[in-house]
Every structure is written in C-alpha cells, then in structure tokens.
Amino acid sequence: MIRCIVKNCRWVSNTFDLLLNHVKRMHYNLNLYQCNYSDCDRSFGNFRTFRDHYKKHYGLHVAFEINRKNCNSVEDAEECGNEKHGKSNERFLQSGRNNNTKNNKDVDIDELTKQMQRSSINFYLKWSSKESVPRKLVLDLQKDIETYFIKPMETTVLCLADGGNLSEDLKNILLRVLQSGIQESEYKFLQQLKVLDVYEDPIVFTISNQLKPGVRSNVQKMVCDLAQGVLLPIKFHLTKYLESPNMMDLILRSITPSDDSVIRSVIDGTEWKQKIKRFESGIILPLNIFTDDFNLSDTASTHSKNTSICGIYYNIPCLPTYVLSKLSNTLTAGFVKTLDKKHFDIDMIFAKLIDVLKDLEINGLEVCYKGSKLKVYFVVALILGDNLALNGITGFVESFRSNYFCRVCKRTKKQTEVDCVQIDSELRTKQNYESDLQQSDVSETGLKSECIFNRLPSFHVTENFVFDIMHDILEGALLYGLQHALHYFIYVKNYFTIHELNYRKNVFVFGKLSSGNIVGDFTERKIKSKELKLTASEAKVFTQFLPLIVGEKIPLSDPVWDYLKVLLNILHIVLLDEIPIDLINPLKTLVEEHHSVLKTGTLRLNWCMSH
Questions:
Q1: DSSP 38
Q2: What is the rounded distance in angstroms from the CA atom of residue 175 to the CA atom of residue 109?
Q3: 11 near 4, Cβ under 8 Å?
Q4: For residue 526, what are the CA distances in angstroms to 424, 532, 594?
Q5: 315: β partners
Q6: Rounded to whole angstroms, what are the CA distances from 470 to 88, 475, 571?
Q7: Percent of the chain at pLDDT above 90?
Q8: Global pTM?
C-alpha cells in the first residue's frame, strides 16, 4: 500500500496517481514534501520535483489504475492487471484489500471529523485570502453549500435511517461528519480554529490616547485621538511553524556553520558567532526583522498616506534559499499606521515587540520534536529594510542630505562623495556611539535617539551591517551607469541606433526565468535625457544580458564598456546565494575601481562630452 507522506494522516491507496491527487487536494499548503519510501528521507520544496523523485522509487511497481470502463469488478481488474503487469500486482492488490478491510473495522470518527473541519477551514481561508473576494461573500458561499448540499444530505441520512437502511450508530457518524464542516459566522470560524489549536488572537496595543479638539454629531468637543497597533502572537506562530512537518529537521540540518570558507547565511559570519557565545546549551536560531510600508487604497490618491500601513515581518535566515524564497516562510509580527510611526516616539511603537523578542532570547520556546521537548532560543541577527526605514527605526537622521547621514560610518556627506575605499577608523563603534548619544547634537553625530533594539541582550545597532542592494545598486549605481552608458554608445560613439537596440532586445531570448522582467522599448527622449525608469528586476535582467545583445557592436577597448564590465562583476558577486570568502577582496577591488573611474577616470571626460 502507498501511504500519505504527511505524518498522522491515515490515507492509503493502491496507486501512485491517487497519492498525488490526495496530497494536492488535502495538503496543498505543505512547505516541504518528505519522501516516505523505505529508508529515503529526502525532502523537496517543490511538488513537481517530489513527484518526479517519487516516481523513480516505484516505477513499474506502482499498482495499476482500475479501468472502470473495461473492468466491472475487482476480480476483473486483477485479471486485467495480471495480463499487463504480472502477478506481483495481484499480490499488491490482495494486500491492499486486506488492509482496507482492517481499516474499515477501525474507523477513526474523530479523524474523519477533523478532516471535514480542515476541508471547510481550507475552503474559507483560500477564498477569504483573495483580494477580490469580500469576506461576506465567502460566508454566503458556505451558507449556500450548507443549504443546498449539506442539509439535503442530512435529510437523506435521516430517511435511510428511518427506513431501516442505516443503523443508529452509522446515522450518528454521518450526521456528525456532515455537521462538522458548517461555518455559520466568522466568529464561530475563529473559535473553531482555536479549538483545533491553529489560531490565537492578536494583541491590540495603544500607542497614544490623547484628547484633542474635534467635532462629533455637529458639536465641537474634546475627543480621544486613539492610535493603536497590532502585534500578532509571535511565540504561537514560531511554535506552530517549527512543529510543521519536516521543518525542524530542515532547520537542524541548516544551523551548522559551513567549514568550507563559503558564506551561505548569517550564521557563517563572525558577528553571529559573537552573539551566541554566551549560550551554553540549547538550539539557537537567528531572526531577521524587517519593515515595509504598503497602501490599502490607490497610491496615486491625495489621501494615500492616510491609509499607508507599516508591516513588521521576520524570518529564520539560516534556512536554505529555496525555502526562504517562498512567501509562506516570511512571518508577520504586526502592523502600525505609517503616520503613527512618524508622529509618535519609536519606543511607544516597538516596545511590545521588543519585550517579545527579549523573552524569546532569554527564555526561549519549548518545541515538540519527535515526541520530546526541545528548547529553542531566538536571537535577532539583523534588522533589515531600505535605507530610509532603517535610519528611522534605529534612531538615525532620515534625511540623506544631512552632514552625517550614514548609520555605519561617521564620514561627512562631502567625504563620502569622494571616498573610493572604506575608512575603517571612521566606522561607528559601541564606544563612539555612546559618546555621540551623550553629545546630543544631531548635526554633529547624525543620531536622533538611542536605538530601541539595543535593549536586546545580543544586539547593538553599530553591528547591524545591512545594506539595501535593490536601492543602492539595482535602482542606484547600476541604473545610473546604464543610462549614461547607453547615451554614450548611441549618441556619442554611434555604435548602434536606438531602433537597433530595441530590435535586438525584442528578438533576444531572455529565458523563462527572466521573461516576466523584460524592459519595454527605449525612447529617444528617455535616452537623451538620461532618465530611464526601470524597476530593479528590469534593470538587473537587461544589464546582465546587455553584453549578449549589443556586445559585438562595441570595441573591447572602449573605456565605458570597461566600466560596465566592472559594474556587472560587482552585481554578479553581490547577488550570489553562496559567497566564497576568497571573493571578498576582489569585490573590494572592483568597488574601488568603479568609484575611481567615476571620480577621476576617462569615463568622466567621455560623459562630459555627451552633455
């Protein structure tokens, strides 16, 4: 018999195709697919890869599908199968029939009821998560299913029981299973989620509740200006996340630092090794926290800022890339209004989150793993975000025109405009950070307030070496260099025309992975004004394939072409999933060469000619 790959699921079948249909229908939200064939313990993040792997195990040994058109009975099916696959299938079907007989004697009513409840819950969650479907419509759909399907089936069961065709026990079983999937309201739906231990209420906390003048019912009076935030049950989410099928096995295989001089995740860095020194035992996992704003209405509206929400998210960065790339492995910590984040003190907004993170680091969580309890501690490794968001939540100035705008070093704005290498003596440290706080002069330090995340035992903002690749490179240095280089190639050197560039781009095969990020046709106005509007993905894809599109038209000795090659080498290194330590020094050299060419090289003169 072929059993379901999900632990505690009692589903069995004779055929491999039925297993695939069962997994896709009943367990479609799996993060990992674990092979359960014999001693094989491989796991896959993609259903198609798992399917191909599983087929290799069974091959011709998988029992044949019963052809209901040609076989009117199980005996006929066995006869057909013996002709096609040999007598081994007869023994397979015979063992399956025996197992089915045994299972029929020991029907688990509770498990059937839970499966019905899970099916109803999955139905509600699937449709309520779609942006175009209102929640009320989902509840109406469930009520219609109850009215037009469940109720008639209950009536049929009662009629059969009254006629003596069903025993009293079987009648009660069928009614119990049918009624277990009914959802009458959203409140009852949430209560059922709590009973199944898959939901916990979020915490709504008050940021400010000040009195201010206002108008209520056409009467001017003092009203409460209530500002609130929402913190989701992080401990509950982490517990369920780690206890999900195969997740803990994957994490335990991923938390060992690499010993081959390759940086694969944050745990391979020296900063992480310093953070976990004080832990004597237990499993220590890193957490990355990041924030981003999103709008609930039209972003072009004049009131779009009033509906902007700041989301706070986290993940476990030691997981493999193919797992982290899925949105389901990015967990939500909470939400606050973007305007509240600007108007109120950061301490008031993030205080509840800091308390939870501190408790996770000091006390940890108990996670059930293979029948035993494991103590798991969580340490904040990095605070991520774009430059503006990071400067805001970590207490630095948010204006990048200020004299000291950098959160990593203490170089002035004018100095950073001509620096080609990192000045180690100017980096921010715990010592000069404390001195800057005592000085309390934003114009001379770039510090507005102390970072609230410094309250965590193993975190300090001066060790938070995080940079925004998308804005700094893809939408920054890369786009800047690309738009000037295209202008130079087309209108200064006349290597090719803009029509030839568009033609070559349009007939070029970018491949399946890049086909969704192909830039549109370039216009003469955009190239001449050097104001290309490309997304980060479009800039990355186009620049990476540019040497194949127009490389034969450009002389190898061209200095601007040399500059683009340096820029491409930098891009290739920083986008690697695994970075060998041996590439760090070459990357420093490439960055220094890139900055030097922009500041003093021939490229600067060539670009001046193009103006």
A1: T
A2: 11
A3: yes
A4: 40, 6, 24
A5: 288
A6: 58, 6, 11
A7: 41
A8: 0.73
